[in-house]
Amino acid sequence: MNFVKSMLLALALLAGVPGAALAQNRVVFQINDEDSRKWHTVLANINNVQEELGKVEVAVVVIGPALGMLKADALTANTVQDAMSAGVRFVACGNSMSAMKLDKDDMIDKIDYARAGYVEIMRLQQQGWTYLRP
Q1: Structural domain total, the chain
Q2: Which residue segment(s) compose the domain that 80 sits in?
Q3: Is residue 94 part of a domain?
Q4: How far is CA 85 from the centre of its chain?
Q5: What is the secondary structure of 64-120 as a DSSP string?
Q6: What is the pTM of this model?
Q7: Which residues, 6+ apart, have CB-to-CB distance to 9 below 8 Å?
Q8: Is 8 contained in some domain?
Q9: Cα–Cα distance for residue pair 92/100, rounded to 1 Å
Q10: What is the model's pLDDT at position 87?
Q11: Each residue of 60-116: pLDDT tens digit?
């Protein structure tokens, strides 16, 4: 994005112009539940967003019990890997992993990690990402 376009977007965001944040097409989903129905709903929502808006950067920040769905032996592992192949980034909360006594060897390959999931969400929002929690 060139400088002028970036400045116009920043001014639109500061002025509260509806839809200005969507101009960047970046969305972060939060999931805390270890419930396969919830996960399928999140993945369906991601698909709907991508179909409606086209090219969209998507991150899913996974916190607490939901980390079980990112384990290499989870029933959702194949679905998560399919989403990753489509460009979706999954971020595991390091604090939750420590509390659950999980390490990177327990998890699906090529997911990302953040020290604190909620801080990661805050950072992404500060960078203009749209936040959704289904």
Answers
A1: 1
A2: 24-132
A3: yes
A4: 14
A5: GGGGGGGBTTSTTHHHHHHHHHTT-EEEEEHHHHHHTT--GGGBPTT-EEES-HHHH
A6: 0.81
A7: 1, 20, 23, 24, 128
A8: no
A9: 12
A10: 93
A11: 999 999 999 999 999 889 999 999 999 999 999 999 999 999 999 999 999 999 999
